[in-house]
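Hi again,

Forgot to attach this to my earlier email, sorry! This is the prediction with adenosine-5'-triphosphate bound. I've pasted everything inline since the attachment limit keeps bouncing my files.
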Amino acid sequence: MVAPPDNDVIWARSLHHSHNGSPALGGVSLGIRDGEILAVTGPRGSGKTTLLHCLSGQLVPDQGEVWFNSVPVHTMGPRLRERLRRDRFGWIAPEPQLVPELTTWENTALPLLLRGASHREAKKAAMEWLERLDIGMCARKRPHTLQQSQRQRISVARALAAAPAVIFADEPTATLHHTDRTHVLRTLTSAARSHGITVVLATHDAEIAALADRAVPLLNGRRVATVALPAATDTEGRAACSLSV
Ligand SMILES: Nc1ncnc2c1ncn2[C@@H]1O[C@H](COP(=O)(O)OP(=O)(O)OP(=O)(O)O)[C@@H](O)[C@H]1O
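Structure tokens for the complex follow:
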């Protein structure tokens, strides 16, 4: 095994993975720098979700290596990977995945409570992020009483409240209307930048990818070449277009 470069928080080499014999990744390599916001782009079925699952230790690739802060993840057993995900990573799914029996603030505080934070500390962090996402007034409500956009904001607040090293966001605004989408994404990217959180954002939407520092386009489970372009209208990130090679 060759150790990854020191300045990459996540480094992956030649990832191959198939789902029940159906190929999803065909040799993807990439490095992600500390604090970077990286968009993984590509059409439906190009392997974005599978790549995020491999990078976050949810899935062990059939072949290839994944390293986090120079520690190999692909050789870890399930319990170590679970602890890594709990302590260092945040996850935002396309659909909010909340515990129906818990209130908004309890759902948001859950990762901190699982890590052993005090009730008071976890609630304070949860409330801060719920306020920033404009859902502080829903703190005592249960998910089923809220709108979809409010539930997805809870997922984003939950990921940020735990102050992870890396947030993996898989099409985090796919179910939101345009205005909600912009607010949620800007909160996520500006919070990540100010707190030095690395973000790996899977999206098929070029407008969303333009909020990232860099894009890694996938096609049929493989990387295609990237050309970084200065954005014409956005000062927060850079757009990228891809060329098949
Ligand atoms: N659990 C699974 N079982 C079988 N095939 C799967 C499974 N998950 C993904 N695939 C297949 O693997 C390939 C890559 O899927 P993946 O979900 O990683 O792509 P994606 O770019 O995230 O697509 P989408 O935007 O639709 O989620 C696709 O051909 C998909 O049908």
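DSSP finds seven helices and twelve strands in the chain. The two ends are 28 Å apart (CA to CA).

That should be everything now.

G.
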